[in-house]
Amino acid sequence: MSRIGQNSIKIDRDISCSFQNGSFNAKGKLGEMSILVDPLYTVDILENEILVKPIEEKDKQNPNWGTMRSLISNIVIGVSKGFSKTLELNGTGYRASVSGTSLNLQLGFSHDINHEIPKEVKIECPKQNIIKLSSFNKEILGATAAKIRSYRKPEPFKGKGIKYENEFIFRKEGKKK
């Protein structure tokens, strides 16, 4: 029995949700999202909460119940509050700036990297070494942050590279004579 699947999802008054033909839709102040729900489960929308329930008793053992509930919860939180991630650039001469629809990164290569920003993601650079990403879609936000981080992952000897705000880089000792 799933512990996560049993929990209800709290919703605000400004969010409108619907469940029709196996598709869950949510619309809020930040945007609108939908997801196809597994046919083994049904979504009950009450006044101020949402419940994801299995249609048959045997499907309570299926681990997809908790996954489905988490995906619906991410949609509800995304359209009401949104998600954000912060990346930090550590290294001499490492800079980031936003120009139009692309993120310009100077990461110590012989050329600059221009990363196209997806339309669902908002990127801002309050400082040259900080990148703040925000979006209502958690999946696209995480994929964009991971792609930007992959251009120069942090290395363990000096700690240079792009890291998440709360990430700890395990430091190694260098060569000894």
Q: Looking at the chains present, what oligomeric state does this protein adopt?
A: single chain
Shape: elongated
Strand content: 35-45%
Q: What is the CATH homology-level superfamily of the largest domain? A: Ribosomal protein L6
Instruction: Enter the CATH topology name of the largest domain.
Output: Outer Surface Protein A, domain 3
Low-pLDDT runs: none
Strand order of the largest sheet: 11-12-7-13
Q: Given the structure, what is the number of helices?
A: 3
Order of helices and strands: HEEEEEEHEEEEEEHE
Main β sheet profile: 4 strands, antiparallel
CATH architectural designation of the largest domain? Alpha-Beta Complex
Helix content: 10-25%
CATH class of the largest domain: Alpha Beta
Radius of gyration: 21 Å
Distance between the termini: 58 Å
What does this 3D model show about the protein?
The protein folds into 2 domains: 3-80, Ribosomal protein L6 (Outer Surface Protein A, domain 3, Alpha-Beta Complex); 83-164, Outer Surface Protein A, domain 3 (Alpha-Beta Complex), CATH 3.90.930. It is of the alpha+beta class and 177 residues long. It has 3 helices and 13 strands. The longest helix has 17 residues, at 64-80. The protein has helices at 3-6, 64-80, 138-150, and strands at residues 9-10, 16-20, 23-27, 32-36, 41-45, 49-54, 83-90, 95-99, 102-106, 113-116, 121-127, 130-135, 161-164. It has a 4-stranded antiparallel sheet with strand order 11-12-7-13, with helices on one face. The protein has a 3-stranded antiparallel sheet with strand order 1-6-5, covered by helices on one side. The protein starts with a helix and ends in a 13-residue tail after the last strand. Strand 8 and strand 9 (102-106) form a beta hairpin. The radius of gyration is 21 Å and the shape is elongated. 19% of the residues lie in helices and 38% in strands.
